[in-house]
Amino acid sequence: MKIYNRQQIAERVKLDPAALEAVEAGFAALGRDEVAMPPILSMNIAESNGEVDVKTAHIQGWPRFAVKISPGFFDNPKLGLPSLNGLMLLFSAKTGLVEAVLFDEGYLTDIRTALAGAIAAKHLAREDAQRVAVIGAGLQAELQVAALRLVRDIREVHVYARDRAKAEAYAALMQEHHGLTVTVHDSAADACAEADIVVTTTPAREPVLRWSDLPKGVHVTAMGSDNPHKNELEATILASADVLVVDRLSQSRALGELHHAPALQREVFELGSLIAEGRQARSGAEQITVCDLTGTGVQDTAIANYAARLLEEA
């Protein structure tokens, strides 16, 4: 058994086309029904504004499967600590023996989450999309935009966050680290006014995005709602979008955006099925597409296998 720390992992695993290909392959396998993936084991620790999720999946034919333990404690920034942490255990799919401990402190989760957003945009956003609006100003607000640049020629970034100071700090960071100029707005509606892609990256308990905020032709990726008490999208968005996609129907209904629209009667696609079948979900330039990402065990197994392979080659 090998143990790798965050620094070792971060030196090898980056937001790059190879990592995107690995995670996309996991989604495609899920769409082909080649994945065993049980429901998420989730526990809330209300008095500390925390939660712990355990996710796993086995992809047929892949040498290893991962079990990820992922705590999220959202008051941690007040203590000078990161909100997310955790590790991944990598087991042999042939013998069940532990082959590696990836003590990544949440790094791989951050990477695979950002890549999932890029994969959603790759299959759902307009080919000419260049302007992205981000709701929220945390780590995923940075990584989602960085990952989007793997699949679209992003030229403009617009941000809205409840804390104006955090939005200003985000704008400075994106200029320094990514060479992107960011415009800070005073409302989600203003940030989204001319967007081609909108990404919501918050732990909000009430909608931060409304149907009236969305211009024609936009693609929306909602990645913050991964627990029943979280909700980023107004229900009208789910009902009115031309195309509605989720990473896993059962998860979205249990703890994602669909959880907050139980009476919704419409066709909902799974992202993996679109990828596996090569379907073009968008059929018009003015269509509005939406993808709800709750985070799946197959993403964890995909990125953990990819990371282990790179680490063993080092």
TrEMBL record:
Do you know which Pfam families this protein is assigned to? Answer: OCD_Mu_crystall
A GO CC term assigned to this protein in UniProt: cytoplasm
- What InterPro entries does this protein map onto? NAD(P)-bd_dom_sf (IPR036291), ODC_Mu_crystall (IPR003462), ODC_N (IPR023401)
Matching entries from PANTHER family are given as: KETIMINE REDUCTASE MU-CRYSTALLIN
Q: What is this protein called?
A: Ectoine utilization protein EutC
Tell me the organism: Pseudomonas taeanensis MS-3
